Input
Amino acid sequence: MPETVETQNTTKTKKIRLKDMFTILLSSKIAMVGLVIVLFWVFVALFAPFLTPYTPFEQDWKAPNQGPSAQHILGTDELGRDLWTRLIYGARVVLVVLPVSENISLPGGTAIWGVVVALLIGATLGLIGGYKGGWLDELVMRLLDAMMAIPVILLYLIIVVAIGASAVNVVIAISIVGVPGIARLVRSLTLDIKTREYIRAAETRGESAWFIMFVEILPNTRGPIIIDAMLRIGYAIFAMGTLGFLGLGMPPPSPDWGSMVAKGRAFILTGNPYAALWPSLAIASLVVGLNLLADGIREESMRYQ
Amino acid sequence: MIVFILRRFFLLLLTMILVSVAVFVIAESSPGNIAKNVLGAFITPEQEAAFIRQNGLDQPMYVRYLHWIAGNDWIAEKQIGMPLKRITTEEDFEEWWAVRKDGALIRWKVDGDDLVAIVITEDGEKTEYVDNGRWQEIEDGKQQFWGIDRQNHAVRWVKGETETMFVFVMGKGWMESSGGPKDYIPLKKGFVRGDPGVSFRTGRPVNKSLWTRLRNSVVLAGTAFVIVMPLALLLGLIAGLQEGSVKDRFLSVGGMMFSVVPEFATGIFLTLIFSVWLGWLPGAAVLGTSAPWEKPMMLILPVLTLTLIELGYILRITRASMVEVMKSPYIRTAFLKGLPYKKVVFKHAVKNALIAPITVIMLHVNWLLGGIVIVEVVFGYPGLGAYLLESALYKDFNALEAGAMIMVLVAVGTQLVADIIYTFLNPRIRYA
Output
């Protein structure tokens, strides 16, 4: 039974790869620093409700625009809302929950969803283009080239202006922007893997094209895609912050780092820099953490190879 | 090579057409409407209809798209039967006039049942007279006339039947008025002829504000570029030469940090440090209409923000390229030949190591444009990016479309230039 042998093989290699990744992680100081930062944010995002006595919407009209104090460890914003609370609930939106509507939230943060959706669409396009080739490949790649040529910020502007500002639409915007890059990466990997003997073997066995693409080729593109995805989550957080800052992100009362900065910015020169400073620091540290992690892993894995 | 460049050129055209159609369709089909944005949320349906008709927004989408691209003065000329001309007045307003056979400029207004012609003769004298001879009979004994009104539309008046219309008054916005005509063609020359129409938000022709904004952005980006390029290339080469050293680690990790942090966060940090705590620099750019170079202090923080973002990116590419070149066989040969270190680096390595960053930088313009938008918003800098954002939020189509096209032109154009430079730098492509 060739299939069972093969599945056994893949699980075996997968285990080894994961173990490898772990040792890589431990051996790179840079990756460790990144990991600690990222884990910190994941932790506060997961346990946000237990880490603060306030809700992100609770206004204290007696204490607006205050600096750090015993009641509000990071201070308050212009409506007297607790900044620490809004900060960690903001992390929650980025990393842990996707608020679809007022009552429905999906697990997995907005940035994560954006990357996952982009991965699904981009990988499919890249696989089809790379494996099938021909006019379909030509057409898809030319269109994606044209899309890549459009300045990213313009794409965001157009998309969000067209469909309005909400968490789901931010996911759509992030994934549309991400698709061309992922498709290209997967396509180039596919072109390489296509020539391997096990693909020839599968073809001779008479497997369908879909089986070959998704079961034979896709799992073998894993390595580069994981590193790419990690960087992409960084971009996605970057993009979320930028959209929020431009007023194109989450609708107002929700705690969104970008829009917190945009609001707080007005009070910098009047003496309360905290409302803008904390979310800026938060987004900067999270993005840097992710990049350190991805960088460290990439560097170490290259050394091992 | 020519085929290659032609292909890229074709791609540029394709991209621009795609974007222009996409922006048009998306902006038009998006929720919210321009009449409510312009006139306020509490307008009556009749007012809304009047405004939409007056600005030609009731036309089918493809007609409006064609008018936006190629203009509609030639259609209006056919209706009126006179050549049309756009002049710029002493107060710097753009006005459309019909040209009479004797060379005088003419347009009309309706006063009750009378048609009044306003004429400027060639020596600049302005006169008004009743011009009822121009009314033309149509069915049911009505009389109509196609002419130019005083708000730069080609219009069809029907005698005795006037509608409400809106006039943009400087400093007051859109005001309601009576005596309006039946049909409107808002005159414009079209984007490809350098006139994308009037901005709903400002009531001014888009191309005027657009050029000032574009100039400001170019000054900002250009200054940052001039500072970043030599610095990043130099630091990148230094880091690449000593791969793995403390200096290299410091430069590449530091560079990465600056390049991945969102521009608005960097902007906030710099504002806090330099204008709040140290008090050295102004925190926001207040330029008004004066050119940015008249107040160079205002430029420092925006330029610094852009510089930091771009520095890390170019530094890392240069570093990677240099590391790769230093490992290549021809460099080893050069060392084994006994050439001194300096000569190998400067004469052999650097030239090849710079090919990659220079072309990649051009491709990076795409990202740089995004950075400029944010930096302009952070510091209130009156550039193209801020203009684009304001127009997008207001659904000011004419301005949004024009700004988007300019941006795409810049992005795709630099990619074309990058490809051409690359073919010249890399003989393997040139002779392929």
